[in-house]
Amino acid sequence: MRIGLLTDGGYPYATGDSRLWCDRLVRGLTQHEFDLFALSRTAEQEAQGWVQLPVHVSRVRTAPLWTADEDTLGLHAPRGVLARLLTGGGARSYGRRERRRFTTHFTALATSVCSAGATGGERGEGEDPAGRGAPGEAAGSEDARFTEGLYGLAELACEHGGLPAALRSETAVRILEAACGAHGTGRTVQSATVPDLLAFAAELDRVLRPLSLDWYDEESLGAVDLCHATSGGAAALPGLLAKRFFGVPLLVTEHAVQLRSHYLAATGTPLSAPVRALLANFHGRLAGEVYRQAALITPGNTHARRWQERCGAEPAKVRTVYPGMESGRFAALGENEGDGGPDTLVWVGRIEPAKDLIALLHAFAEVRRAEPDARLRIIGAPAQGPEGAGYFAHCRALAAQLFPDEAADAHAVGDNPVSFEDIGGVEVPDLAHAYAAGGVVVLSSVVEGFPISLVEAMFCGRATVSTDVGAVVEVIGGTGLVVPPRNPRALADACLALLRDPERRARLGAAARARALELFTVEQNLAAFRGIYLELISRAPVRREAAAAHGGPRPFATPPEAHVLGLWPEPDEGPDPEPAERTPSWAGARGAGDGDV
After folding, report:
1. How many CA atoms lie within 13 A of 53 on its CB side?
2. Where are the alpha helices (DSSP H) in 269-352?
């Protein structure tokens, strides 16, 4: 079958989220044909190019989310329409009828987003992220208003050109101003000023950019059998439109819930409180629509699944599929019964505030008081940017303060029991050697989705001590020790328990490796999606015309006979079909069209 893989800021680019997972999925399912529809996040990401693609990737369509240049975007507009839409100054604008349509649809969307019952805008951390506490009828009417506005804007964009100019117009700001000031909106939203509305309109333009692309025709998304969105949010928007315009079923995979990621990222932005509230409301409404329209939702863990269900996903449509990871590079270490430094704790990952190395250092101070020979190796690089560099410097300064260099005697060189190392050096040439550097692997995070470093430690047969965040308990499954986050005393006690008991370390390490090989390998992930693809296409209505020797329905966009040279066989009865009906138009020349491979 032909799969339309929808990505946001990752595959097929050489950098970005979910890049490795998407590449393994495509390369592992060679019996299917893939069309890639990729959104890029930065100019730097595009400049670094793509990974090498396998031969069964038929075409790649790309679009940037980081620019407002409509020529660069390649926005959709029927031939002859753009000339009519151009106005003075070179800006693109709609005619009177199109402006009325935009006002109607954008008013519906803005009213829904600004309403007090929208997701996340005025709610506390412990409250329902989906805003389901509002009366069901009111919530349903606001959802209907949101979808009316969203799809109305999409149809307008497909018929009369892209939306960026309209979304950045004075009309859009006036509509937002009226919606924010309407009765029933929250206090934070009501306090929005004109600069706040301009900032929100700019962010809204960026998120809704996929509505304006020229991907929605019979030769692009209309030609695929199944859309597989590798995240929610902007990546899923093309899948929503493919379902609405062509009836293509939508599969949504979220290893990290897009709505939760937005909440976490919003706290570190310079955006004002009203803008953050409006964006949270919008992303909540969008998540709800994506979950309603998806034929199946595959979270990467149960923690993500709980978020999805609280945001409106039907439990019957949600199926947990753990992300597959390569286990082969850890095989030699995992099969080795050696302990790799029984008095040494190892932490592996990206050094950033969410990993809470400050608590780990204070916990290690307690460990050293009880076990003076213990050591701590922190292996990883700081997160990019000034915040990452500043946090790394703070951790090093705290380590130097808590653990002054020690020397065995007056003639020896002092040594610090805490070391900061990077992968790729002489002592730690690769990731497997990082986990081999100690007897116990520690994870001290205060925020975590699916803990990849924990799974890697399990593949290596290492006993682990982790904080109870994200999907940690689900991943560990009783094969390691779990303590509350932000509790250095509990973290120290758990580390001491394993450092002092080598037999327990060995038992937990062996159990952890067995669990990882059962649940978290690439092979189990591919097997799951192989079955899911066939299941979804079997439930989807046939969208193709009758063809082939017996005139029966053709259920897949890429039937096996399409790969056979020559024309398809003539039907037994009926008039002679045109050549275009016997041979798929795309089979003769792969990747036709601008932006295709």
Report:
1. 17
2. 273-293, 302-310, 331-334
Q: Is 420 helix (H, G, I), strand (E, B) or coil?
A: strand
Instruction: Determine the Cα–Cα distance for residues 47 and 281; give it in Å rounded to an integer.
Output: 33
Which pairs count as long-range contacts for 382-387, CB under 8 Å and 24+ apart, including other chains? 382/350, 382/351, 382/352, 383/350, 383/351, 383/352, 387/268, 387/352, 387/353
Question: For residues 563 and 557, what is the distance between their CA atoms, to the nearest angstrom?
Answer: 12
- Say if residues 149 and 106 touch (Cβ distance below 8 Å): yes
Q: CA-CA distances (angstroms) from residue 203 to 219, 338, 460, 510? A: 30, 53, 43, 49
Model confidence pLDDT, tens digit, residues 387-413: 899 999 999 999 999 998 764 555 445
pLDDT band at 69 (very low <50, low <70, confident <90, very high): low
Half-sphere exposure of 447 (CA within 13 A, CB side): 11
**Rounded Cα gap, residues 322 and 308, in angstroms:** 15
Distance CA 440, CA 344 (A): 7
- Between CA 81 and CA 142 the distance in angstroms is 33
Q: How many CB atoms lie within 10 A of CB 316?
A: 7
Q: Is the pLDDT assigned to residue 76 strictly greater than 50?
A: no
DSSP 554: -
254, 228 contact by CB (below 8 A): no
The two structure tokens encoding residue 159 = 């018929």
Number of Cβ within 10 Å of residue 407's Cβ equals 10
How far apart are alpha carbons 15 and 44 in whole angstroms?
10
Q: How far apart are CA 450 and CA 409, in angstroms?
A: 46
- pLDDT tier at 78, thresholds 50, 70, 90: very low
Distance CA 466, CA 484 (A): 8
Total number of residues shown for the chain? 597
Which tokens go with 183? 């009765």
Q: Which phi-psi region, left, alpha or beta, contains residue 97 (left: φ > 0; alpha: ψ -120 to 50)?
A: alpha
In contact, 577 and 571? CB cutoff 8 Å: yes
Band of pLDDT at residue 556, cut at 50, 70 and 90:
low
How far is it, in rounded angstroms, from Cα 555 to Cα 150?
A: 30
State pLDDT tens for residues 334-392: 666 555 678 999 999 999 999 999 999 999 999 999 999 999 999 999 998 898 999 99
